[in-house]
Amino acid sequence: MMQRWRGIGVGTVLAMLSLSACSSSSDSGSGETAVTTLPPLAKKTSYKVGFVQVWEENNPWRNANTASIQAEAAKRGYELVFETGSGFGATDEVARMNAVIAAKVDVIIIAPQDPTVLAPSIVAARRAGIPVFIEDRSIDNDVAVPGLDYVSYLGSDFTKEGASTAQWLIAHPPAAGVKILELEGTVGSSPAVNRKKGFDAEIAAQPEMTILDSQSGNFNKSEGYATIKPMLAAHPEATVIFSHNDEMSLGVIQALTEMGKKPGDIQIVSIDGEKAGVQAVKDGWIGAIAECNPRFGRICFDTIEQYADGQMIPLQVKNTDRLFDMSTDADSAALDAYIQNEAF
Ligand code: AHR
């Protein structure tokens, strides 16, 4: 879809925007011109909120993210319209997005599994007059434009997460050299694409370090386990495994244990910070974890209320995440604190 205003629209991505004044023309490609305006949100004491989540089975990160949104909605006395979905796939999520639009919710919070497949659904919600807030995973901004089709994207800096695990590895290289197997997340998803981008760029700047192979384990433990086994068999020289999330790292640990390996034989670096992942740092299996905090409930609902209030909303709100390892937390006190206070 060609949009006449794109030259100015995308340039405003990092700016603060006066949302109520945001309006622009777009060309559908068939010669018609439509007005693009962020839908308003009336100030009310309670809202009917549609929540559209990535479907992932047995993923503590996803469960914690859902629980955070549910808890915050309940705390504020809002009605949450939420279906878990019936299977993995962006088309299933498109169907759930259509359902919340049909339910005429006041506002939508969505974590899009795939940035391309879900983008037209964001535009459809805006056309139906429902303001959309994107959390966790980003969207294709060429199709769904921030500040015009959706209000704001609230998420972690996935590129930085990948880069910070690589930087830790560069500072703590195994004695036998850095020969890496990379386990990627769900193909095409924004965390998989950007974690890879951040990690691979740092490693590419180190001539003595290599990425031997890189394949998707789809962000889950069983596929991480099944994917890493043949990769390890094909590359017995590997000294490092970079896994795009803790669940896949747990699958890697299972595979390494079955091979008779011990903690430290192969260095694992990971992302998320779920309880079992942090425990694996304490046990010596994982060298470092870049945190990806799943608790978006409070910031999402605060931002929605600010929008209804007519306040200026940033087009992008980034989480500040941390990095955990045993060398910086030698007495493991910080890791213990994390497990006790923020485990998921
Ligand atoms: O989008 C966040 C990622 O999604 C988390 O790292 C992962 O565990 C989940 O699958």
Numbering strands along the chain, what is their spatial order in the largest sheet? 5-4-6-7-8-15
Q: Any guess at the CATH architecture of the largest domain?
A: 3-Layer(aba) Sandwich
Tell me the strand percentage band.
Answer: 15-25%
Q: How would you sum up the major sheet?
A: 6 strands, parallel
The total of beta strands comes to 16
Calculate the terminal CA-CA distance, rounded to whole Å.
41 Å
Bound molecules: alpha-L-arabinofuranose
State the CATH topology of the largest domain: Rossmann fold
CATH-assigned homologous superfamily of the largest domain: Response regulator
Encode the helix/strand succession as letters.
Answer: HEEEEHEHEHEEHEHEHEHEHEHEEEH
**From the alpha-carbon coordinates, what is the Rg to the nearest angstrom?**
21 Å
**Global structural class:** alpha/beta
Instruction: Count the DSSP helices.
Output: 11
For the record, the CATH class of the largest domain is Alpha Beta
Helix amount: 25-40%
Can you describe this structure?
- By secondary structure, this protein is of the alpha/beta class.
- It is 38% helix and 20% strand.
- Strand 4, helix 2 (60-76) and strand 5 form a beta-alpha-beta unit.
- The strands form 4 sheets. It has a 6-stranded parallel beta sheet, with helices on both faces. It has a 6-stranded mixed beta sheet with strand order 10-9-11-12-13-16, with helices on both faces. Strands 1-14 form a two-stranded antiparallel ribbon.
- The protein has 2 domains: 43-156 and 310-319, Rossmann fold, CATH 3.40.50.2300; 158-292, Response regulator (Rossmann fold), CATH 3.40.50.
